[in-house]
TrEMBL record:
<dbReference type="InterPro" id="IPR023298">
    <property type="entry name" value="ATPase_P-typ_TM_dom_sf"/>
</dbReference>
<dbReference type="InterPro" id="IPR004014">
    <property type="entry name" value="ATPase_P-typ_cation-transptr_N"/>
</dbReference>
<keyword id="KW-0812">Transmembrane</keyword>
<dbReference type="Pfam" id="PF00690">
    <property type="entry name" value="Cation_ATPase_N"/>
</dbReference>
<protein>
    <submittedName>
        <fullName>Cation transporter/ATPase domain protein</fullName>
    </submittedName>
</protein>
<keyword id="KW-1133">Transmembrane helix</keyword>
<keyword id="KW-0472">Membrane</keyword>
<feature type="transmembrane region" description="Helical">
    <location>
        <begin position="59"/>
        <end position="78"/>
    </location>
</feature>
<feature type="transmembrane region" description="Helical">
    <location>
        <begin position="84"/>
        <end position="100"/>
    </location>
</feature>
<feature type="domain" description="Cation-transporting P-type ATPase N-terminal">
    <location>
        <begin position="2"/>
        <end position="75"/>
    </location>
</feature>
Length: 131
């Protein structure tokens, strides 16, 4: 499985081609049969799942646990729920900001991929072309 050790003749034989490259018809046929030489793109993660993943951070879990404990002590002592509300507001703001940052990063990566479109030099009908 070490293709880099193969000789030129072995590679040409395995790929069923010759030194002059493929004909335009053969290349089109292989494109139809095998598809584009492209990696599969990951499915986009839904917004709600990204939001929940922000809440799975260990520090956020600790804050939520602190809010629960604070809420229970507030009920037991008959005090206000101000601490609970403040902690939960901080947790929600953190999650919203995290999702927003992730969205911006994904858009930036997509823009970079558009800018850096890959090209290849190929032999078609005995002539070198860039596709």
């Amino acid at each position: 499985m070490k293709g880099y050790l193969d000789t030129l003749e072995e590679v040409l034989e395995k790929l069923n081609t010759k030194r002059t490259g493929l004909s335009a018809e053969e290349a089109a046929g292989r494109l139809m049969a095998d598809g584009k030489n492209k990696l599969k793109e990951a499915k986009p993660v839904p917004l709600w799942r990204r939001f929940l993943s922000q809440l799975a951070d260990p520090m956020i879990v600790i804050l939520i646990a602190a809010a629960v404990v604070s809420g229970m002590t507030a009920v037991y002592a008959g005090e206000s729920f101000a601490d609970v509300i403040i902690i939960m507001i901080v947790v929600l703001i953190n999650a919203v900001l995290g999702v927003a940052q992730e969205s911006k990063a994904e858009k930036a990566i997509a823009a970079l991929q558009e800018i850096a479109a890959a090209t290849s030099r190929v032999m078609r009908d005995g002539k070198q072309q860039t596709i």
